[in-house]
Amino acid sequence: MKRDYATELDFLKSALTLENPLMPTENFLAWMDEKKKAVKVDIEQIRFSEMDHWGFAADSNLRHSSGKFFSIEGIEIDTSWGNVNQWSQPIINQPEIGFLGIITKKINGILHFLMQAKIEPGNINFVQLSPTLQATKSNYTKVHKGRAPLYLEYFRGEKSGQTRVLLDQLQSEQGARFLKKRNRNIIIEVAGDIEVYDNFCWLTLGQIKEALRYDNIINMDTRTVISGIPIGSYPTEVIRLYETLLSTEKNYPTSLLTSFLDEERSLHRIEEIISWITRQKSEYELEVKSIPLKEVQRWVRDDMAIYHEDQKYFSVIPVRATISNREVTSWTQPLVKSAQEGIIAFIIKKIKGVYHFLVQAKLEAGNFDIVELAPTVQCLTGNYRESNGPPFIHNVLNAPPEQVRYDTLQSEEGGRFYREQNRNIIVEVNEDFPLEVPSNYMWITLNQLNTFIMFNNYLNIQARSLLSSISFT
Amino acid sequence: MKRDYATELDFLKSALTLENPLMPTENFLAWMDEKKKAVKVDIEQIRFSEMDHWGFAADSNLRHSSGKFFSIEGIEIDTSWGNVNQWSQPIINQPEIGFLGIITKKINGILHFLMQAKIEPGNINFVQLSPTLQATKSNYTKVHKGRAPLYLEYFRGEKSGQTRVLLDQLQSEQGARFLKKRNRNIIIEVAGDIEVYDNFCWLTLGQIKEALRYDNIINMDTRTVISGIPIGSYPTEVIRLYETLLSTEKNYPTSLLTSFLDEERSLHRIEEIISWITRQKSEYELEVKSIPLKEVQRWVRDDMAIYHEDQKYFSVIPVRATISNREVTSWTQPLVKSAQEGIIAFIIKKIKGVYHFLVQAKLEAGNFDIVELAPTVQCLTGNYRESNGPPFIHNVLNAPPEQVRYDTLQSEEGGRFYREQNRNIIVEVNEDFPLEVPSNYMWITLNQLNTFIMFNNYLNIQARSLLSSISFT
Questions:
Q1: How many CB pairs under 8 A join A and B?
Q2: Are A12 and A249 in contact, with CB atoms under 8 Å apart?
Q3: Which residues of chain A does B184 touch, with a Cβ-Cβ cutoff of 8 Å?
Q4: What integer pLDDT is reported at residue A5 of this predicted model?
Q5: Domain locations along chain B
Q6: In whole numbers, what is the pLDDT of chain A averaged over residues?
Q7: Topology annotation, domain B236-285+340-467
């Protein structure tokens, strides 16, 4: 498969660059703090009956009066996967494909990313670092009558002479919360001058990955976009070339990179992994039927919230957001509030000298195509406090500290989720850990995962979020 | 991307082999004729009220009493693609994923394919060459109480010690007729002895491709399975190796092969093609709502058929099939009957010395993921007799004979379609043909098409059918 190694090398150099005279990392962290202090954010939980433009329609679903944005509907699930084979639940239905776009530009030969300190009502910290553009179709077709999002023209082809597309993929959102929702994840490079508006700044990819070592700074949308960048997935001859180029130009650190290069040392061929996925999709059925919200079993709706009768999973709450420097200063909207914190974790293991990720084929109700590739562990806290918990949870939670390669709290998208954060963990197990795994798990290299990310609907958002945290510095 | 070049070489050798002492091609053609003469097939058009186990349910949809097999339902389509943006139509709903499986075995070092002379009620000629196994889930879970299909055990893992999976992909069926239907296309290799039942024979891939030069011998299921074999999609270094290996062993003809090798000479990088597909899927919306069959607008149902009021598109007819040597000797079922013959055609052009295929991003109501990659031209005859016809139709129909590389009639699946055949054409245009094409078309090499075939839901069944006909001998 012919690939654009020149672009990949540009991405790699940016990932290996931590120095940025325009915005050194310590300044960036101070700048984020400043942005946070500069805005007044008030999120008030209200009643459904107090919402503007939102209400329960004749079919009982929760909708905006314009018919746009998103709605909260019911679905009924019938599946042959797992232990629970039938249930109904509320789900977010937002059929439009939105933009998650990052503008990049070479500054002193290094690709810099134009990032935005963005306020979202559901954000922990209120302000998190988002892509240059984060826009639903309703957003950029101006349904809410605000001004058009900044930089939109760069992504809609209006500046096509000055821009080049580096990455352009459809990627899924949370299958347990969204019905088949996908976004267009896109990275472009601009050639000429470009205005940097207030709340925007240039960062290298290395700096973004450095900020991912802290809790809740980099938002979910940024994480999904950068997860598509195929760093570390080079054939041997390319990395040898890179090493030469990189060491000639500058003393880039490349030692960490080599542990991710599969150089044809992967445990399974890509065809075997495709066969494994094909088998999962053929064996398991997932039938999803839309139903009116009021027909969802075991869920209660009162004027304050839509919630499960056991207070499990999540609830939908109406809020009024009042924000000083956003396009629309005050508005009401529903937010999804998780009943508890979750955990997502990859177990990785060096096999033949190369890191392999223990990947799970996971079915979720809103998945576009039955199963997606998920982290080794993906569950809510409540689940793993129960007697057994899901497979491998104890390997993750009881890992000796020297095996924990990554452990932070990262937020879900603050435009839909109320202060939801998940623990993101990567654990490197040692030699003793068995290669033999249950039939719905498989060891896959980063190179191979990157190949699947290029094509639609393979890796779920949790897996992508974890992969975005992998740093080579 | 690490690939299994040893397997690809096995496939290539089989594709380049026309001599088969077990079953020379002329014997094979005689054998097919014999099979055809050996059965008595009677397909009688009946009334819906005369059907056994089939009937119109309370919701007006046409169903089998077991709830299995398939049903004829209504859908309502809302799309921003094309000139007609809203319509409703009947569609075949068969949510199960079936098997289309071929067993292969090395005989004298060459991979041979175990093929079946299979009777299907809708087949032109009644008998066509099908994969070893062609089974819906209802089929192999024995809903129709016949015996289990032959060789099923090889595909369900019961012989896993003696078998190796060579190819295993989910591929779509006709998006205009089936609602999101997919089959598991699988090729396995067996090591030990295997019984060859009546109606089965061993053929090389070259022989199957040779038979594809004739009308209506190789059925659609065989065509889709062999289209997944990545012949001709090798990197330069691999083909050099192959040439050496092949010429050492035997004087294989490889001259045709080299015109398909892109050797990094493709007009577009794979990332650009992915970006183009992403743009199509983001820009065009496809909303499909299930409706009762009786609510489909402008379609009529009487006791003889379900048909469009202008007699266009297709109709659904009830038939009684009586066949002498099938599991169930006589049964009734609905078949879909096309209102006219169709045409599917690829325009190919040598660009930088490599064949590029002019591919169309096409939306069809039953598509799994909005658009699929389709041949340059795909339409019903009625369409192109109208004033203008679809783009490029005249380049195909008025091509000078020396540009026509392939031109045969090939059948749709005879288990669902009544004697439906489409003209399959490949035209090689010359230098003058413009590289500039409308925004929903793109020039793609065979290597790149083969890469997309590996992943789900990219090439539609018409594109795959045409690719299966490419011969290198």
A1: 109
A2: no
A3: 278, 282
A4: 74
A5: 236-285+340-467
A6: 89
A7: Nucleoside Triphosphate Pyrophosphohydrolase (3.90.79)
